[in-house]
Specification:
Number of strands: 9
Largest sheet: 8 strands, parallel, barrel
Distance between the termini: 62 Å
Structural class: alpha/beta
Number of helices: 14
Strand content: 15-25%
Shape: globular
Oligomer: single chain
Radius of gyration: 20 Å
Bound molecules: (3S,4R)-3-hydroxy-2-oxopiperidin-4-yl beta-D-xylopyranoside
Helix content: 40-55%
Strand order of the largest sheet: 1-2-3-4-5-6-8-9
């Protein structure tokens, strides 16, 4: 029993002790200036590879001007047990961005996934759910007030048919859970641009229609929404042209909101071999998105969901990122930089 208690205490301590992502002076000097590209180019970052894998850190520092947290700001990571916050990993990523002069995107405040058990397992009535959301948003957005350029306030609220996904928040509050999250985020960090982030809405689809309709309803209710995040988890077998991107940006721009591509990766299905032609296709898909973004005033930037293939959430076998497993620059790396050259 005592041994168990000691182990638990040690674990607790290791998760609450400050974490640092050390960047040598030589490397830090090679970090691009924040506004050196036509649009910020971002990467989702995890602390462990940034600390333990030199090519990952090198590409992150030198190849990107914006950063987001891949998992460290999700509810289950920040507050696994009620009231016991674990900030070190999220703090380390924000400190890294600040130290290197990179833009920081916050991801994500309210989502029905990666929730801690204590949130998932309880039954919330309307008043309880509203308090739960407000407390969480105030705690997290408040902690980083003034340091986050954009927050993904609500993540993935829709089903593929464009309707609201039923979850614990809608069960208690209906669509109003979204209004509450944005309202509290605006209070907690008035200078952050507030985004709603969604998947599968990059091209005309029932989901895109549902997203447009949702934005209109939010605007009618006076909800302080500034932008739409389009995740864009893409695939070489289904390229999206610059022209198609421009149409999408126009559709959201007409609603008066900004647009950011927030989680781009471009899968090469494992059964397809890595050939120069296929890598060029991947590069073109990245570059077409970037070119469309820079041509559109309301497009605020392009964030990739990872840095090197080795640590991609989609596994290295799918080769989705511009940098290979050992940080080798694939054609996509060059194509992206050229597309975003000032
Ligand atoms: C993913 C992370 O990359 C994984 O490490 C984690 O296991 C699951 O979540 N949409 C999102 C991101 O909004 O937060 C998800 O990130 C990928 C899909």
């Amino acid at each position: 029993m005592i041994a168990l208690a000691v182990v638990a205490a040690l674990q607790e301590a290791s998760q609450t002790r400050p974490v640092d992502i050390p960047v040598g002076a030589d490397l830090a000097e090679r970090a691009p200036q924040r506004d050196s590209l036509a649009r910020p180019l971002g990467a989702a970052v995890a602390v462990a590879p940034a600390r333990e894998n030199a090519p990952y850190l090198r590409r992150l520092v030198t190849g990107f001007t914006s950063v987001t947290a891949e998992n460290a700001m999700k509810w289950e990571a920040l507050e696994p047990r009620e009231g016991r916050f674990r900030w070190p990993q999220a703090d380390a990523i924000v400190d890294l961005a600040d130290g290197l002069g990179k833009r920081m995107r916050g991801h994500t405040l309210i989502w029905d996934q990666q929730l801690p058990g204590w949130v998932r397992e309880r039954e919330w009535d309307a008043a309880g759910a509203e308090r739960l959301i407000r407390d969480h948003v105030r705690r997290v957005a408040g902690r980083y007030r003034g340091r986050i350029a954009q927050w993904d306030v609500v993540n993935e609220p829709l089903d593929p048919d464009g309707s609201l996904t039923p979850n614990l928040f809608t069960a208690a509050l209906g669509e109003r859970y979204i209004d509450i999250a944005f309202d509290e985020a605006r209070r907690a960090d008035p200078d952050a641009r507030l985004f709603l982030n969604e998947l599968g809405s990059e091209r005309p689809s029932p989901m895109q229609d549902g997203l447009v309709a949702l934005v209109k309803r939010l605007e009618r209710r006076g909800v302080p929404i500034d932008g739409i995040g389009l995740q864009n988890h893409a695939n070489v077998t289904n390229p999206q042209s610059t022209r198609q991107w421009l149409a999408t940006f126009e559709r959201f721009g007409d609603l008066g909101v900004d647009v950011e591509i927030t989680e781009m990766d471009v899968v090469i299905p494992p059964k397809l071999r890595t050939t120069p032609a296929r890598l060029r296709t991947q590069a073109k898909i990245y570059a077409d998105a970037a070119r469309a973004c820079r041509r559109t005033p309301v497009c605020t930037g392009l964030t990739l969901w990872g840095v090197t293939d080795r640590f991609s959430w989609l596994t290295p076998q799918r080769r989705p990122l511009p940098y290979g497993v050992d940080g080798d620059a694939k054609p996509a790396a060059r194509a992206l930089m050229r597309a975003l050259e000032p």
